[in-house]
Design a protein that fits this description.
Blueprint lengths: L3 E5 L4 H11 L4 E6 L12 E4 L4 H10 L4 E5 L14 H9 L7 H13 L4 E2 L2 H4 L17 H17 L7 E5 L2 E5 L5 H9 L9 E4 L13 E2 L1 H9 L4 E4 L5 E2 L2 H10 L3 E4 L1
Parallel strand pairs: 1-2, 1-4, 2-3, 4-5, 8-10, 9-11, 10-12
Antiparallel strand pairs: 6-7, 6-8
Length: 267
Amino acid sequence: MDKYGIIAGGGELPIIIYNSLKKNNLDVFLIGIKNNFKKVNSIKKYEEVKIGSLSKIFKILNQQNINKLIFAGSIKRPSISELSLDLKALEFLRLNKIESLGDDNLLKKISKYFEKYNYEFVNLNNLCPSLFSSEKFLTVNKPSKIAYENLKKGKSIFKIFGKTDVGQSMIIQNKIIMGLEAVEGTNELIKRCFKYKRKGDKGILLKLKKINQDIRFDLPAIGVNTLKLLKKYDYEGLFIEKNYCIIIDKKRVIEYANNNKIFISNI
């Protein structure tokens, strides 16, 4: 029988995945990364590890008879000098030059290391389909004509940007790219681009997975906080990718968007 292990960083996503698996009567254990993951009462099967403690992670996986793995949540990425590394972590570093890698390529390297020990990473699209959406419009409000023109501009640039292992989001206003997501994340991108908005349309957020991204890791995600920032900084709405954007607390997200006349549309 399969047993699932969630290696959890910060944010709500690991908790939502844990609860979703439990709801589906699947056996699941959560390994929280210290100073990143914050435990809540609903998490019953849990152990905490330091970010450089690969040996302890493997020990837990073995003790718990875990064979399926999920990476979820944000990790504060320290420099090599800040890490306290055990022997397995040192072995991983010896085999991989991680400081020059973006998030997607780093996760691919980590997954290959775990797969070497016969652990399998799972696809959340298949395991937790309720976290995603496929309908074209999730909200009562629909994108305006200029929103679609902004989308067209954004998609043309994403053909280049999406090939880089940098970010998954961009802001477009008046058919001008106002900003591309980098290490700061989507929320800070929304705030930053407000300073550069010009007279004209309200602007949109476009959030897509990277081109050729391994869909087992680091899929785009939105939540109520994303919508609150779009409202605060007066954006029209957002386009996300059908079946490839995790919606954290979907009911609340859609309710907030409808109450505040923000559109959410799949492409």
